[in-house]
Each structure stands twice: as C-alpha cells, then as structure tokens.
Amino acid sequence: MNFKSILFSVNVLASIICTAQTNQIKVIEDFKPSSVNQQGKLYPQVNSERRVRASILAPQANKVQLDLGGIKYDMVKDEKGIWTGVSEPQDEGFHYYQLNIDGASVPDPGTVYFYGAGRLGSAIEIPAADQEFFAIRDVPHGLVSENIYFSKLTNSFRRCFVYTPANYNEDSKTRFPVLYLQHGSFEDETGWAVQGKANLILDNLIASKKSVPMIIVMDNGYAYKPQSNDSRQESVFEEVVIQEIIPMIDTKFRTIANRENRAIAGLSMGANQTMRIMMNNLDIFSHYGGFSGTSNYPSADAIDVNSFLDGKFKDGETINKKIKLFWLGLGTKEPSPFPGSVRAFRKMLEKQSIKYVYYESPETAHEWLTWRRCLNQFASKIFK
Amino acid sequence: MNFKSILFSVNVLASIICTAQTNQIKVIEDFKPSSVNQQGKLYPQVNSERRVRASILAPQANKVQLDLGGIKYDMVKDEKGIWTGVSEPQDEGFHYYQLNIDGASVPDPGTVYFYGAGRLGSAIEIPAADQEFFAIRDVPHGLVSENIYFSKLTNSFRRCFVYTPANYNEDSKTRFPVLYLQHGSFEDETGWAVQGKANLILDNLIASKKSVPMIIVMDNGYAYKPQSNDSRQESVFEEVVIQEIIPMIDTKFRTIANRENRAIAGLSMGANQTMRIMMNNLDIFSHYGGFSGTSNYPSADAIDVNSFLDGKFKDGETINKKIKLFWLGLGTKEPSPFPGSVRAFRKMLEKQSIKYVYYESPETAHEWLTWRRCLNQFASKIFK
C-alpha cells in the first residue's frame, strides 16, 4: 500500500463516516448565499430554517468541520473533494464562525472578515425579520472616517472611527451633538461601523426623522499605561476618553461641546466601562446607554449603593435631574451572568427611584443583532 | 489497522517526507513577526534575508504548504501538530499569500486580510529600506472617510474612500485640489488606503512640505451598466467618474472645482482606465499619473498615433500646453508585458515631443511597494 493509496483510503473512510453522521438531517433546500460573503462567493449559505451550509474544496483532508455557535458540525466530501456541511437552525442576526480543517481553525475563504471573539475571521448573517432598520437604503448617507492619533497617555498610535451625518457637509456652520459608542470585549474600534452597522442605522433613523442628526465616535476600549518591565497592565481608557478623545473630537469636528449634547454608550464590556465613565463625569455627559451590560457585572448580588461605584448612585434625586436619559437593553436569550447582573442593577435603580428606560431585544443572545436594535432604540431617544 | 492508526501513519509518513525536503534550507534565525499580523500573533515572520516563516496548528493534516509568490513551500509538522515552513528570500514590499491545508487554500489566521488577487486574504510585509515614507509617524494625520452613494448609471450602491488632509478640518473655508486615484485589476476601492498606505504617504509628504495638501478620492474601477438577460457586461466607469463621482465630491467636499486642481492616476488596470479618462476629458483634468500601466497594454508594438485612443495624442503641442504633468512609473522587476508596453508608449510620447516624467522603482515588481513609491513621487509634483 503506497502513500497515495493510504491517503485515498483514509479519505474514503472519512467520507463514509461523515455521511452517516449528517445524512440524518432533513433540510429545506432554499439556501441562499449569505449577505456577508465576498463578492461572487456562493458559500456559506442560509436557508429559511436559518440553517447554515458551508462548503470548501479540500481534496486531501481527512476531516472538515463547520465550527459555529459552540458546535462543530462534521462536513462531508464529494467526489470532487468539496466538503459540505449544514448546521442546526441559528438565531436571527450575526454570528462569528470558522472552519476546522484537520485540526486547523481557519477563516472560511467565502466570507468577508470581521474583528470579534479576539480574532479577524468569518461570520454569517442570518436574515432578521426587522432587518430593514439596518439595511443600506436609498437615503442620504453619512461618512465613516478613520481618524488616527497619537495618544500620550498610552504612548501609542490609536484610531477611532467617526460617523458624521449626511447633512454635516451640506453647510460649514451647523454643529452637532456627539454619541461616544463603545464595543465589547475581544472586539475593537471597527465593530460598530462594520458588523454593528451604526452608520446605516443612523442614516435610516435620520432620514425618517426618528433621530436628530448626530456625530458618533467609536474608539478602542483597550488603552493601557506604558508598562515598565514588572508593572501590571493598568487601564487608562477613562483618561484617554476625557483628556484626549473628547478634546480632539471637539477640535476636529463641528460638535456642540457641552454636556447636554454628549451621550456615552457601550455594549457588554463597553457598557460596564462607559457607565463608570458616565458616573464619574456627569459634568461632561447627559445621556447613558448600557447594551447587555452594567458596572456590577458579573455579580447578580443585591448592590450596596453606598459602596458601588464609590456611592455614585446614592443621590437619586440629583441623578434624575442631571441625567436626561438612562437607558438599558438586553437580549431575551442572553446567557448567564448577563440577565442576573442587569436585574440586580435595575433593582438598585428602582430602590433609588432613578428613572430609566429598559428594552428587551426579542429572541437574541449576547450578539450583534441585540446591539444593533439597542442602538436603533437608544439613538432615537437622545438629544431631544 | 484501525482508523486512528492509519491517520497516525499517514501523518508520520508526511512529516518525514516534508522534513527531508525542507531541512536543506539554511536560514538566519532572526525572524520577527510581520508588521501586518493580527495583534499579538507571532506568525508569519520575516528574517533579515527577507525569507517568510509561516506556522499553523493542524494536528490531523497530511500536507500543509505556504503558497507565496507562485511557489508552494512544504511545511513540516512538529510533535505538537504545529506545521512550520520557510520561503525563499522575497522582494521588499507587500505580497499576497495563502496557506494550503490538504488541498484547501485558506487565509493564514495570523495576518490581517487585504482585498487583492480577487479575494480577501493574507499578505506579508517585507521591510523596505525606504519604508519611512509610508510609516505611521507623529505628524498631523488626515482622515480616510468611507462614502456610500447610489449610482444611477450602474443601478447599485457604490462607495469610495476620501482622504482629507489634516488641515482640512482646521477651518471651514480653505478649499483643496483633488487627486482621483485608482486601483488595479482584481483589487477594489480599499486597496489604496489600506495596503497602498495613501493616507500615511500624504500625511508624511504634507508634514514635510513636499506636497501641497490635497483631497484623494479612491473609488472602485469596476462599474457596469445594469444588464438585461442577454447583454454583455459593459463598463461605464468613465461615465460614473465624470457624471456621478466628480459632481458628488465637488458638492460634499471643499474642493477647488476646476481642471487646474484635478489630477487622475491609477495603477495597472487603473493606469489604463485613467489615461483614457484623462485624454477624453482634458477640460476636467490637468495632471496624469500612470503607475505600471498605459492604455496600449498589453501590446509592445509601435503605437499608431492616428488610431490610438482616437488620435488623442496627435497634437503634441496642444497636449504640452494643456497637461501640466504627464507622469509614468514602473518597477525594475516588473514581468512582461508591462515593460514592453510602457516602452512602446514612451516612444510614442517622444516621437510626438510630448513632455513627461518617467520614474523607476528599484528592485520591485508589479506590486504595492512600486505603487506606494509612485504615489510618493507623483503626489510631490502635482498642483504646484
């Protein structure tokens, strides 16, 4: 038995095993290419049951899997060496995934790539019933601008993306309120303007007059002091926001530079960070949005209002006067510890008689459709 | 012999074969992570000989190759299932590549991804001796803005990226000249601002007063008429530039909207396209840059000036009066047919006594370091 015939035997054997495993799935054959595929790429595809079908040419591989939502689905090889596999039905919205080829976890060559889950990799878009709110439509479009700057506090080059609404360039005088909008853990400053579709959501809201035109600043929530050899990593994100980003934005862009016209919001880790920044700087911000997160994360214990965030929530009356909108959102399918910690936080707000708005995204988990919907709700309520 | 032991035998056998093939290479062990790796990723790496070392975990794979510069280098597996391979020395600059795992051609999970060669995939940056001109430096940085628009001519949403220089936002009155800058075949509107580093090149040129501050518009050179079922694909890129892009840019941005303050340039296919657009619209543009391409491509035959581009080069005297700069650039290592067709084109220019500037990029082929250098040269000469 020579090398090639061993290989051939292994492949045939593998095909038989995988076919046996996956032939049991009955799927509806109405698959269509995912909307986030590279141009001209037919796979991956999604069907009306919200199943994902992936496909890749790998003639010499022993085992290929679709790794999606924490499950590795075996794929099956055809006579041309093309492996194909189908997932269980997925939630509506945007999900990261990868292919696994003989133990190598790699991006699917069929998709565009997104930064999330700590890597630049593949994702699938499962069409949502309400997707028109983030669709590209024939309305006036704002710009998303990459802004590079040197940060003295971190001794590094950083960048943010800045959304300016369509009418920003119509005249040279109008000034705009600003929303500072943050990503979650293992994500970066690209998240909101790429998979978050913040620009398209705002274009649509502004065109239908549901939102006032505003600037949105999306920076990177990871910011650390320059390290000496033996020092621990110390976050200076709040200092970067207050001392570097806001003054830069107020200089470079036509903002209305006062607290009434500044909002801050974030998702998950970003909700946690921005709540802390908000409460430490009520002279700078007047609107807060927490999407799938609060600063008591991950605890579901009752909050001691005297010690939590240095007692910043103790005086409910003053908070109600100063904060024009305190907004929280959560997906109904979010896993622990998110529902528990958000619930504990809401109880504290209620005990303190602090006014807030609470929104639930139906049938979504700790993922981007939840956060697109949160932004859509939140952005329609601020600066009014 | 069960399934697992067959697999094991195949892997061991494959390792022995590959080791035998690659152990002969003597390499200098001063490899460093490539500058276009994803944050925190150690591989791929480049050494002082300009060799590339790639590495990937693929414990069950039979064969893994590094596919770079038209050569597939066998990689070797260690006891942990990590495959590693080293290439021959590469040219300085930016090269696309991929990994091949048991016949599957996939992006390397270690790198950032770039659109080129018709796909979004991996690339390696081999440090260039002159790389300071496109490095990120502590100088004022301009913005790169994504601009989405609906094109009636193609009946589709399109986008361009627009560079505005650092001083664009300093006041609301100053107006700027505009360079329209095009990518090559199998590339798109992202090329110039990502791997082309057009923004950093201009930031550096403007900071050192080698260039005048200018706006750069980078759009997609693929633009087709909406197709009826049986019609051939018909490019309308020139019409999109003249009827849609230029009026949009002159409305949205503070341009100096006259021919003296408009340049057009492109690389390869983009050089070919923009030369045609330039010569058809001398009332609109006054500066031309052709990087690694001309409109007689791919022919190296002597050009018949009466028929070439409808005789647009017949009247050398008028051309010398109207065109303020006619600029051509080429890498010294470019493959056929580029040197031949550019040579034939230059002979025609000389025969017509048409003034032009010719630049050669040392030791680079039909790749991005050639084009970064071309832009660096060209941008320092226009609008003066």
From TrEMBL, chains A, B:
It comes from the Bacteria. InterPro entries: AB_hydrolase_fold, Esterase-like, Ig-like_fold, Ig_E-set, Mycobacterial_A85_antigen. Gene3D superfamilies: alpha/beta hydrolase, Immunoglobulins. Pfam families: Esterase. Coiled coil: none annotated. GO terms for molecular function: acyltransferase activity, transferring groups other than amino-acyl groups. PANTHER family: DIACYLGLYCEROL ACYLTRANSFERASE_MYCOLYLTRANSFERASE AG85A, ENTEROCHELIN ESTERASE-RELATED. This is Esterase. The lineage of its organism: Bacteria, Pseudomonadati, Bacteroidota, Flavobacteriia, Flavobacteriales.
